[in-house]
Amino acid sequence: MREDGSYAISDKVPLGKAITYSIQHLMAFVGGGAIVPALIMGLDPALAVFCTGLGTIIYLLCTRNKVPSYFGVSFSFIGPMAVVTAVDGISGALCGIVSVGIVFCIVAGIVKIAGTGWIDKVLPPVVAGCIIVVIGVGLSSVAIGDVMATDASGNFDLLGCGIGLITFLVAVACSSFFKGIFKMIPVLVGIVVGYIVSIPFGLVDFTPIQEAAWIGLPNITTPTFSLNGILVIAPIALVVIVEHIGHLLTVTSVTGEQCNDKLASSLLGNGLGTMASGFLGGPALTSIAENIGVMGLSKCYSTRVFWWTAGFALIIGGFCPKLAMLFYSIPSPVLGGVSLMLFGLIAGNGLSLMVEAKVDFTSNRNLMIVASTLIVGVGMMTTSTSIPVGSFSVPGLLLASILAIVLNLVLPREECTEN
Question: Is the pLDDT of residue 161 over 50?
Fold first, then answer.
């Protein structure tokens, strides 16, 4: 443990704390990071949770326990999956998922050969900071949508909003006013309090939990070859790779330890994890922003915690349907309440990165990079806008990242200006 009470990436965390931290991570991602996208794509949500655990273990092995990250389901494949499934069925779409993993592995090999020295030139603090801010603020619409959703009649859901606000305030209070273990697990405390408050209002349905078996087996679906699946789904890997790099930059910023030089092994772990998931009938995987936010709040960056989280995901998603249903029963407003804080924290880390690097905002060059990137990225992400290019769609994060990188490379540098 560090002097400030935080745990470094390689630190050993006491068993009790490790389990508590891991449950907090599991609760943070299981709804929005696994169940919802899996259901939309027509995949088994329990198997999706199982695959996130398996993919995370593969990732930790590839990175030799040196990059703390958890892998959930990527939203980027919802549209392409629907297109391929309509023609070749879900097994054909799974072929595309496997091909995404192969693309990741190929890019990992290229990075291994080229090295990571280009990161500092292509992604200096002004660019990296903007991308991190776009990730955090751009996801705000997801959290707001969960908290301020409409009811069955299409009216504003005041009850859901109130419960989301309670969850948010409890998490903030734990992080700001409490000491000891409660200060280190604000997300878990917020979710538990929000869940309990939701029960008397009928927002928690216990029927699926009661009907589910204690022991079960994962529903495995094997892929079949599909050229459509490869051509339509594989190119989306480029979008997720940009997202992956952005999250790796965020992890480096949050932990204060250098993780960028692990990019090749990080991409390889993501690729192999996605391939394994696709072969079992699961989704394409990507690092999850919620869990990066949890790390920032808890100040626990140890990869040992993610081993526990992955282990719980394997058990819950693969072999214990009753526990899976318990996690599925967490109301959306509760998940939205904690997401408000987590996504805001990610955006704050992006701003902190630029401040610590002493980015000069009196420089017209830096202002153009920041202004253009934030407006395009946040605007497109919060409105769910993308640019169609054939069967491929360019999402806001990818366009904003390309814009920031290009502007940084082509705009003239001003004397006495730091990036």
Answer: yes
Contact 281, 47 (CB under 8 A): yes
Task: Specify the 3-state DSSP secondary structure of 73.
Answer: strand
**97 Cβ partners below 8 Å, 6+ apart?**
77, 223, 229, 233, 274, 277, 278, 282, 283, 284
One-letter amino acid for residue 85 of the chain: T
Are 102 and 235 in contact, with CB atoms under 8 Å apart? Answer: no
Q: Are 182 and 352 in contact (CB under 8 A)?
A: no
User: pTM for the complete prediction?
Assistant: 0.75
Paired tokens of 204: 């928690």
What is the rounded CA–CA span in Å between residue 172 and residue 162? 15
Asked if 6 contacts 68 with a C-beta cutoff of 8 angstroms, the reply is no
Retrieve residue 382's tokens: 């919060």
If residue 389 lies in a helix (H) or strand (E), which one and from where to where?
strand 386-389
CB 292 within 8 A of CB 132: no
Confidence label for 265 from pLDDT (cuts 50, 70 and 90): very high
Lowest-pLDDT range, 111-115, 264-268, 333-337, 395-399?
Answer: 395-399
Record the tokens describing residue 287, joined without a space. Answer: 């690092």
CB neighbours of residue 216 within 10 Å: 14
pLDDT, tens only, 326-385: 877 888 888 888 888 878 877 887 888 888 888 898 899 999 999 999 999 899 888 888
Query: Distance between CA atoms of 250 and 135, rounded to whole angstroms?
Result: 9
Are 405 and 123 a contacting pair, CB within 8 Å?
yes
d(CA 158, CA 151): 9
pLDDT-based confidence at residue 417 (cuts at 50, 70, 90): very low
What are the structure tokens assigned to 210, written together?
Answer: 């009661």
Given a cut of 80, is residue 324 above it in pLDDT? no
